[in-house]
Amino acid sequence: MNKIYGIQYLRAFAALSVVALHAGKRVEAELPEPLYHVLLLGHGGVDLFFVISGFIMWSISQKKETEPGGFLVRRLIRVAPPYWIATICFVLVSVVIGSAWVELSTPHILKSLAFVPHFNATEPARIWPVLVPGWTLNYEMFFYILFAATLLVAKSARFFVLTGLLFALVAVGYAAKPADAITITYTSPLLLEFLGGVVVARIWQSAPGGVLRNGLLIAIAAVAFLVLGPQVDPTDYWSRTIGFGGPGILLVSGVAGLAGRVPQLPVLERLGDASYAIYLFHLFVVVPMQVVWVAMPDLHGPGTAMAFVVVVLGLSALLGNVLYLYMERPLQIGLSNLLLNRNRRQQVASR
């Protein structure tokens, strides 16, 4: 899909808000309290990613014919290799430095790599993989599977089938209140955020609206986020679906509707390209910076704490861009070309 610059910039904003959140948590005691509470709103970056994902998946599927197997392979190529590399690097670093704060086991690592939701070995109450930010990818991969299933039905029925599936799963979770990690994840209200993105894409394709409507949507989204966001309990998925997901849906709708009026800004565009790498690898900046922070107690204070957050943001953005250019993008192109060549050989052989 051709880039919609506003959506691209939202991807950058979502990734960097998560980075700022995690950086702020490391220097919480020294940050001015109002600023720290603003940084806590970075939890909503994940929910914004989910809405954007639903928007992009629907938009892509409407622009070209696709079949379920090919769709899933392409999404796997896009998502899995960088995540696998990040997870393996995290495991290797943890083993080398002998960190007492992380527990590793073979089942834990294998389930993490396979996108299987499970309770974390270090934090038994949380459904987290080895690389904690990867918990969101369990939702992404499940949504891709559900979305691929809808590609088996007529194009005119896909939205209704997808909507029915997602609402049915969430209803089961609400009624049954499951206790196992897989069922909790696969019946979570967070799935409705993907659906929100799909709804936004359908509206955008049929009635994108003008400056007034979309500007108003963005303003309402900002107010709703500022009012509801501080009330959200990030561990309560109904709370965050309403408080973060709701404003996120309005924001994506407004920004998408202004697609033709948002200018190309190369720096923000590049940050949007690198947003996935920034999100996956930012802990490789946050954790070492925390070690440096702890080792220099005489410098602690509000000013240096704010500088810490800014430096972590800058280094994470830099690392993400480097990894996007020299790891993520080449891997995606190479694997996509392998898939394309394989399909061509199969077509030739079938003639």
Please summarize what this structure is.
By secondary structure, this protein is mostly helical. It has one domain.
Give an overview in words.
The chain has 351 residues and is mainly alpha-helical. It has one domain. It is 74% helix and 0% strand. The protein has helices at 5-26, 33-40, 44-63, 68-97, 106-113, 135-150, 158-176, 181-186, 191-206, 211-228, 237-257, 266-273, 275-281, 283-294, 302-350. Helix 1 crosses helix 15 (302-350). It is globular and about 70 Å long.
Features:
351 residues; 74% helix; mainly alpha
Q: What are the SSEs and their pairings?
A:
Elements: H1 5-26, H2 33-40, H3 44-63, H4 68-97, H5 106-113, H6 135-150, H7 158-176, H8 181-186, H9 191-206, H10 211-228, H11 237-257, H12 266-273, H13 275-281, H14 283-294, H15 302-350
Radius of gyration: 21 Å
Q: Tally the structural domains.
A: 1
What distance separates the N and C termini? 31 Å
Element-by-element helix/strand order: HHHHHHHHHHHHHHH
Multimer state: single chain
**Overall 3D form:** globular
Which band does the percent of strand residues land in? under 5%
What is the helix tally?
15
Give a short account of the largest sheet: none
Quickly give the structural class: mainly alpha
Query: Would you count the extended β strands for me?
Result: 0
- What level of helicity do the residues show? over 70%
Low-confidence stretches: none
**What would the average pLDDT be, to the nearest integer?**
94
